[in-house]
Amino acid sequence: MRVSGAPAGEPGTPDGRAAGSDDRGGDEGRGRDGGDDREADGDREADGDRDGAGRGPSWRRTGLTGAACVVFLLLLSHFVAQPFLIPSGSMEPTLQVGDRILVNKLAYRFGSEPRRGDVVVFDGTGSFVREEPAGNPVTGLLHDAAAALGLAAPDETDFVKRVVGVGGDRVVCCDGDGRITVNGTRVQEPYLTPGDRPSDVPFDIVVPPGTLWVMGDHRSQSSDSRDHLGSPGGGMVPVDKVVGRADWIAWPFGRWTTVTETDAYDSVPAPPSGGHGVGPRGSGHG
Cα(273)–Cα(224) distance, rounded to whole angstroms? Predict the structure, then answer.
């Protein structure tokens, strides 16, 4: 049998192969070896790509981790501690515009109730503001989520004030020295903005059971219970509308501290009909 390309009659090699077949065979062998090398190189490159993908960032994993963090923060803010952005100066100097406070939502969760002197956040719907028709549900949901994370101002129905009177208290302004009295005892209020009087509006009220009389620390700039004396409810805030107690200032870092407790009401006696505002914070019900 002749190999194509070998002239007729040309003597073969001793092993019976045509002349020049070794060269061609060598070339073919080298070609096969080269192909194997290329396949090996391709395998190594593929392995490198897979290794690189394993070492590089996984957007899916990052997205899932971020979503899990957001869900955790939302659950935390709903049940434990919710951040609130302070939008006005009504609580100066205690709270400044732009402060982000953490509201302890467990403070009144297990039988305790707000006490005189507590700084509380509450939903003023039905007391400070009227019911309003619902807006865009999607926009509202996004805003609520941002507010829950402290990234947006709270709802217009949310307020932060200081508790001055609790159920059964008689709160009067003002006595001969210009001070507020609670159950006949004058209250020295060291947290007021310097230069502010306890109130420019005279009042004499008895706080109904289950409600609170609240006022801002910057009295001349605060719209509080005094401004709603003629409204339904008489400016009283139902206890079940309280979101929680403002316990910490979390931002900015320069103001990172707890909200200072006050002993201004320690000497105030229990109301004649009883009440829950007796004694300093943490001393239990009176």
Answer: 25
The burial of 202, by beta-carbon neighbours within 10 Å (0-12 exposed, 13-18 middle, 19 or more buried), is given as: exposed
Query: CA 199 to CA 202: how far, in whole Å?
Result: 7
Report residue 214: phi and psi, to 5°.
-125, 150
Note whether 164 and 112 are within 8 A (CB): no
Residue tagged 């609790």 (tokens): 166
Catalytic residues: 90, 161
Query: pLDDT (tens digit, 0 to 9) for every residue of the chain, 286 residues total?
Result: 343 444 444 444 444 444 444 444 444 444 444 445 555 455 544 454 444 444 556 877 777 666 666 554 555 555 557 889 999 999 999 999 999 999 999 989 888 999 999 999 999 998 898 766 455 555 555 555 555 555 555 557 899 999 999 999 999 999 988 999 999 999 999 999 999 999 999 999 999 999 999 999 999 999 999 999 988 889 999 999 999 999 999 989 899 999 999 999 999 999 886 555 444 444 333 3
Pair of tokens at residue 63: 């997205």
> Which tokens sit at 82?
């919710």
For the chain, count helices (H), then strands (E).
Answer: 3, 12
Are 160 and 86 contacting, i.e. CB atoms less than 8 angstroms apart? yes
Q: Name residue 196's beta-bridge partners.
A: none
Confidence (pTM): 0.67
As a residue count, the chain comes to 286
Beta bridge partners of 205: 171
Residues 6 or more apart in contact with residue 115 via CB below 8 angstroms:
163, 166, 265, 276, 277, 279, 280, 281
